TrEMBL record:
It is an enzyme of class 6 (ligase). Pathway: Purine metabolism; IMP biosynthesis via de novo pathway; 5-amino-1-(5-phospho-D-ribosyl)imidazole-4-carboxylate from 5-amino-1-(5-phospho-D-ribosyl)imidazole (N5-CAIR route): step 1/2. Residues 121-310 form the ATP-grasp domain. ATP binds at K117, K157, E194, A195, K196, V197, E202, N280, E281. One of its GO terms (cellular component) is cytosol. This is N5-carboxyaminoimidazole ribonucleotide synthase. PANTHER family: PHOSPHORIBOSYLAMINOIMIDAZOLE CARBOXYLASE (PTHR11609:SF5), PURINE BIOSYNTHESIS PROTEIN 6/7, PUR6/7 (PTHR11609). Catalyzes the ATP-dependent conversion of 5-aminoimidazole ribonucleotide (AIR) and HCO(3)- to N5-carboxyaminoimidazole ribonucleotide (N5-CAIR). Belongs to the PurK/PurT family. Homodimer.
Length: 407
């Protein structure tokens, strides 16, 4: 009889691998969980509902609200780092957690500049970073005076809580501006005004930074918005002079360092017709403009975010193809009769190189329910393919008229 015990087989000790807590159970947490699995780690999420995208897939779910300190405490117990899939956790709660020994990454003194667009603008102005003209709005008169000085239409923004274009308005005249300002102020929403930038296009410079201070940048990408919401990302941004790309990357790295950001950060940029780059806003978490990297970069943003908040060395951000295009799958105005599974089946048959990411979300108009990544050599062809695939998944209609029944 062989005595096996003389060879000490070491079983995988999952308790020796770190658990990270992510506040928020949306698709960003779901995809971070996917990266955690590959690293042998676990992601615990604080989700509002058991059917939230991340709560569906991780066994470690704490149900609760991000405004509730007790729920945050419960989610933080025993985890190596606490991080976020959105920017809405009150900073006083984070200060309380830090005082109790929780490792919060990014720290609240950095996160505040992603939470509060007015504080972000003040800070960027102080750092000498190019931004649109802006002002705080506490009355209709403030808004009118700003627009008269900077031109109509102008941009009104909720200082906090906006996403996917919600909380952004572009009133064309005084009547429109008055209606929005009065309504929002009456609902307790703090407002600011910005000059409407004449955009050539929008770009995003994404970086990640660890508490140790190591930082890495992905190539600058172009983001295409529809109805104020990101629809397509082209990585890297095409026809961007090398000097401009380097300038944008350097700016994002500098901001991450000066603000003390840890984890992933997206710097949303406006490129003007004269080639100037202005900062729109900062997101301190994985971001839609980084989804391409899940398939198109050596290290994607979800893995990098985990590495960064855990203070590991960062991964290579090298692209794996000349171009990667990401297209969001948005809920259609009317849910197609064909099931999502059948749509996926047909997509798999027709575009076998489409990398599909579905979030487990119900289909509602314009809701981000998934995305497609396509790697390629030719930017226009790759974009057409990615958009055709995403449109198919949303609508069960091929934009080029192809019909699988007659071919
Ligand atoms: N000052 C501006 N000038 C021109 N367009 C603007 C301006 N501010 C915002 N926009 C447009 O509105 C979109 C949404 O604005 P912003 O990024 O501030 O809002 P959000 O809802 O917080 O964003 P997100 O979609 O990133 O969650 C921008 O991507 C851009 O297309
Ligand atoms: Mg934005």
């Amino acid at each position: 009889m062989t005595i096996l015990s003389s060879v000490s087989a070491r079983s995988f000790d999952s308790a020796a691998m770190p658990t990270v807590t992510m506040i928020g159970g949306g698709q960003l947490a779901r995809m971070t969980h996917q990266a955690a699995i590959a690293l042998g780690q676990r992601l615990r999420v604080l989700a509002e509902r058991p059917d939230d995208p991340a709560a569906q897939v991780t066994p470690e779910v704490v149900l609760g609200h991000h405004d509730d300190l007790a729920a945050l405490r419960k989610a933080a117990v025993g985890s190596y780092a606490l991080t976020f899939d959105h920017e809405h956790v009150p900073t006083e709660h984070l200060e309380a957690l830090i005082a109790e020994g929780v490792n919060v990454q990014p720290p609240p003194h950095a996160l505040i500049f992603a939470q509060d667009k007015l504080r972000m603008r003040h800070k960027l102005a102080e750092l000498g970073v190019p931004i649109p003209a802006y002002t705080e709005v506490t009355s209709v008169a403030d808004a009118a005076a700003f627009a008269d000085a900077n031109g109509w239409p102008f941009v009104l923004k909720a200082v906090r809580g906006g996403y996917d274009g919600r909380g952004v308005w572009m009133p064309a005249d005084l009547a429109e501006a008055t209606a929005i300002v009065e309504d929002q102020l009456a609902h307790g929403v703090s407002l600011m005004a910005e000059a409407k930038v004449e955009l050539k296009r929008e770009l995003s410079a994404m970086v990640a930074r660890s508490p140790f201070g190591q930082a890495a940048a992905w190539p600058v990408v172009e983001t295409v918005q529809r109805n104020g919401q990101c629809a397509v990302v082209i990585a890297p941004a095409q026809d961007l002079a090398q000097a401009k790309a380097t300038e944008a990357e350097a700016l994002a790295l500098r901001l991450a360092s000066e603000l003390g950001v840890t984890g992933a950060m997206a710097v949303e940029l406006f490129e003007t017709h004269s080639g100037e780059l202005l900062v729109n806003e900062l997101a301190m978490r994985p971001h839609n403009s980084g989804h391409w990297g899940m398939d198109g970069a050596c290290t994607g943003q979800f893995e990098q975010h985990l590495r960064a908040v855990l203070d590991y060395p960062l991964g290579s951000t090298k692209p794996l193809a000349p171009v990667t295009v990401m297209a969001n799958i948005l809920g259609a105005a009317e849910v197609p009769e064909m099931s999502m599974d059948e749509r996926l089946h047909h997509l798999s048959a027709r575009i076998p190189d489409a990398k599909v990411h579905l979030y487990g979300k119900g289909e509602r108009p314009d809701r981000k329910i998934g995305h497609i990544n396509i790697l390629g050599d030719d930017p226009a062809e790759t974009r057409e393919k990615a958009e055709r695939a995403a449109h198919w998944m949303s609508h069960a209609v091929w934009t080029d008229g192809w019909d699988h029944h007659h071919d």
